[in-house]
Design a protein that fits this description.
This protein is mostly helical and 105 residues long. 84% of the residues lie in helices and 0% in strands. The two termini are 28 Å apart.
């Protein structure tokens, strides 16, 4: 739903929807992991359900991989490279920001 709304506003020329989904998922996983490792004790099975199950289903590494390869296949190497590196850097930053936020909550 979020991805569709983003594509509707931004257009389909770049995978903005997948990028946003993965960035928000990284932030939320950083938040949950930090909070449950340092401040709040929850059942480890429930923590795995939230992070691996729910957030694993929310984020989409397979779409990211396909979209990157499709851009490369179509000769858009710069766009594919920017998407690939940008996704990695943004994901790491978002997870870190989630961890920082988790310390503050």
């Amino acid at each position: 739903m979020l991805s569709g709304a983003i594509y509707e506003k931004m257009g389909a020329g770049f995978p903005y929807g997948t990028f946003a989904i993965n960035a928000t998922g990284c932030f939320i996983i950083g938040l949950i992991m930090e909070m449950t490792e340092t401040r709040y004790a929850i059942n480890p099975v429930f923590k795995m359900f939230l992070t691996v199950g729910v957030l694993g289903g929310y984020t989409t590494f397979s779409s990211y991989s396909f979209e990157t390869l499709a851009m490369a296949r179509d000769g858009m190497m710069l766009k594919a490279s920017l998407y690939s590196v940008g996704s990695l850097v943004t994901g790491l930053f978002a997870a870190w920001a989630g961890m920082v936020a988790g310390r503050l909550v």
